[in-house]
Amino acid sequence: MALETDKLGKRGLFRKVFWAFGLGLGILFLLNLFFPSLDFSMEDRVGVIRIEGVIVDAQATISELKRFAENPYVKAIVLRIDSPGGGVVPSQEIHDAVQRVRSKHNKAVITSMGTVAASGGYYIAVATDRIMANSGTLTGSIGVIMEMANVEELLKKIGVEGIVIKSGRYKDVGSPLRKMSDEERALLQSVMDDVHQQFIEAVAEGRGLDLAVVQALADGRIFTGRQAKAAKLVDELGDLDDAIQLAADVAGIEGEPKVIEPRRRFSIRELIESRLLVLFPKLDFYSGVGLKYLMAF
């Protein structure tokens, strides 16, 4: 009888341990699901944020920057940029968010350039403390592009007439249904020139260069990483590991730096939009006028 009681007691203990273990795994799973960036480690580390593909939205990157900025154990941040650029506004929003991290939270932000970090990708990079590129990185492309099509003759051939009802003379500027007038072209060029000047000013401020120097380089040309270093558009040559070590050194982290990356939830929409825009950068998902800091080839 005592033996049976002992066996029952062991089985009960085993069940309790089993259920406690299962409950613990369940809690960890739920924490990972709903709080993917939760980190219980108390070591100093370098945060790595990746900006890849065409830049169509800034919110995910800005949220990651904010989380790392507010994490007391993330002492420095590395932006790994592998992007030909993208929309003007999202590029500017990420640029401004990087500046807030540096000024408000006093954390170093280092850029590591991948295969390409051009146009809007470079616009973001100039907001960081230091820029590191590979020798063969394609960068630069300091400029703005606006593309639209005129399908008026095509519509005539297939017997379709485009009709526009508008409230102002410039409301349909850039319409694909008719030829653009010289006055409209001048209007769009003035907008383009202003946005281009904003890019030039951001580069001059971020890189500590004279406006005239940047102006001479801001004709849309691209540079290799080595050429960009000679032109003072980047600081050093090196890969991602080198940039991480540089960030650790700047932040005063001794020894091998621990690296943390945010885990993004998988988004089919973001994947499709980004990859399609890389393959077909001249295609837009909406009609009308659109300004882009984009290396368009």
Provide an overview of this structure.
The chain has 297 residues and is an alpha/beta fold. It has a domain at 42-145 and 219-294: Alpha-Beta Complex (2-enoyl-CoA Hydratase, Chain A, domain 1), CATH 3.90.226.10. Helices cover 46% and strands 17% of the residues. The chain has helices at residues 2-34, 59-70, 88-104, 120-125, 152-157, 182-207, 211-217, 225-230, 240-251, 268-279, and strands at residues 45-52, 74-83, 85-87, 108-118, 130-133, 138-140, 222-224, 236-237, 258-260, 292-294. It is globular, with a radius of gyration of 26 Å.
The H-level CATH homologous superfamily of the domain at 42-145 and 219-294, spelled out, is 2-enoyl-CoA Hydratase, Chain A, domain 1
Please compute the radius of gyration using only Cα atoms.
26 Å
Helix-strand topology string: HEHEEHEHEEHHHEHEHEHE
Shape: globular
Q: What is the averaged pLDDT score?
A: 86
Helical residue percent band: 40-55%
Question: Which spans of ≥5 residues are poorly predicted at pLDDT below 50?
Answer: 282-287
**Beta fraction of the residues?**
15-25%
* Class from secondary-structure proportions: alpha/beta
Named at the architecture level, the CATH assignment of the domain at 42-145 and 219-294 is Alpha-Beta Complex
Distance between the termini: 84 Å
Oligomer: single chain
Q: What is the CATH class designation of the domain at 42-145 and 219-294?
A: Alpha Beta
Q: Report the total helices.
A: 10
- How is the CATH topology of the domain at 42-145 and 219-294 named? 2-enoyl-CoA Hydratase, Chain A, domain 1
For the report, how would you describe the main beta sheet? 8 strands, mixed
